[in-house]
Amino acid sequence: MRTITPDQISQHKTSQSCWVIIRNNVYDVTDFIPNHPGGRRSILRFAGKDATSDFEAIHPPGTLEESLPEGAKLGTVAIVDGKERAHDPTDEKQEVKLAPEAPEDMLNIADIEEHACRTLSKKAWAYYASASDDMRTKTYNNTIFNLVLFRPRIFRDITVVDTTARMLGFKTSLPVFVSPAALARLAHPDGEKAIARACGKQRILQMISNNASLRYPDIVSARVSSEQPFAFQLYVQNERDRSEKLLRDVVKAGCRAVVLTLDAPTPGKREMDERLAREEARSAGNVDEGEALSANSGRGKDAEGGVGRALFQGTAGDLVWDDLIWLKEQLPHDIKIILKGLQTVEDVILASQQIDKRTGKQLVDAVLLSNHGGRALEAAPPPLLILEEVRAYAPEVFESLEIYIDGGIRRGTDVVKALCLGATQVGIGRPALMSLAGGFGEAGVFRVIQILREEIETAMRLLGALTIDQLGPQYVNTRQLDAILGPSPEAAAGAGVLLKAKL
């Protein structure tokens, strides 16, 4: 295979002739530009340059072989003056300020996030920290926990507390799981494998993102034992056969549950992420004049935003309740179905009523109350509020569904409050990603889970509850939270009928 000099490569930097360097190999990606799921700009800003750092952070191994035709690989980069390739400016880190350098120095999740802010690349921070619009929903997901107060009991023997919990029929050492969180390799080369190892050692479940930066079998290969459970997040694609193949692959690799994600059928407006993408496009200087961003360019496919928007290309927007039958048909009978992204008590009730007419069995095993971490609809209800509405208006569904929440969890006391209100398990997303940063990797994720374990145990002791099963509404004062509950399903339906009558 021929060698190509950096100068030769740099001449091919337009949409008419676009070459890129990945792992010292040179590829002609000109014909792939119109079909790239992340949009044209994602490729063009690296035209004639080295794209290795950005490419490997967000693409699983094997992506090139699957996406490009034979002949796209042109050769390798020639060594010039002892250097194989030019400096990749997009891999520059933010200035690292003084911060604790060991995971054990982190006292809480806020410390973890501060450390991540100082050590992550600008791209990684913009993707992990961004949320929709003014990011108020992201903030409210956490601050709403302040509306719930504890009611501690005394004269209880709290010498030993047991945090063992259950999830879909198997035991976990803690009522905490890692929610689907994409692109972990933006923070650490081990990415989702580091999360898998930490979860295995702490004996909790990891939900693997549909947009993980490693392939599902590779992540599962990092399990610490054959019994370690995993769930897989699914975004159904417009091309259903692609989703069907993906499901076959993850089931073969040992998936225990599928998490059908419903709270983001289209991407929210994540301005932090989008702003960085525009800055990178301008600074790259490779974009054709006709591709330049302008106030009149609109928000079509070629005016795409950041990493978050790119990940949603091809996601189906036409899902309805009947599609649960299709999903069930793709899975062995023992694979559980979790619906992620329910945001009203009405939809939780509907989820509990979905029956497989062939078997007479319930289709949905669990629901995950979530607003996508505040990254989808601004002003969506925080999961804790949805949980309280379910408890107030439809307590019967707790008998037929396991109910999880995620979003805004920053303390063990947040977890305990959710458990008192009926949650079976509580998920963390951003903390797991950010704990990888600064070289922490697996040790960082382990530390996050350890922090939550210590805080949960402390809260249980101070409450006077010895086991997870003992936690219940008797331990919390929800008067402030109840004051902002939405209308009951009956009242909401009645209001709709009344409005139509007036119209």
TrEMBL record:
Gene3D superfamilies assigned to the protein according to its UniProt record, in alphabetical order: Aldolase class I, Cytochrome b5-like heme/steroid binding domain
Keywords assigned by UniProt, alphabetized: Flavoprotein, FMN, Heme, Iron, Metal-binding, Mitochondrion, Oxidoreductase
GO MF terms held by the record: heme binding; L-lactate dehydrogenase (cytochrome) activity; metal ion binding
Pfam family, one: Cyt-b5
Record EC number: 1.1.2.3
Cofactor(s) demanded: FMN; heme b
Subcellular location: Mitochondrion intermembrane space
GO cellular component: mitochondrial intermembrane space
Coiled-coil stretches noted in the UniProt entry, renumbered to this chain: none
Broad EC category: oxidoreductase
Family matches, as InterPro entries: Aldolase_TIM (IPR013785), Cyt_B5-like_heme/steroid-bd (IPR001199), Cyt_B5-like_heme/steroid_sf (IPR036400), Cyt_B5_heme-BS (IPR018506), FMN-dep_DH (IPR000262), FMN_HAD (IPR037396)
This protein's record includes keyword Oxidoreductase: yes
Description of how the protein assembles with itself and partners: Homotetramer.
Similarity field: In the N-terminal section; belongs to the cytochrome b5 family. In the C-terminal section; belongs to the FMN-dependent alpha-hydroxy acid dehydrogenase family.
Protein name: L-lactate dehydrogenase (cytochrome)
Organism: Lipomyces tetrasporus
Species classification: Eukaryota, Fungi, Dikarya, Ascomycota, Saccharomycotina
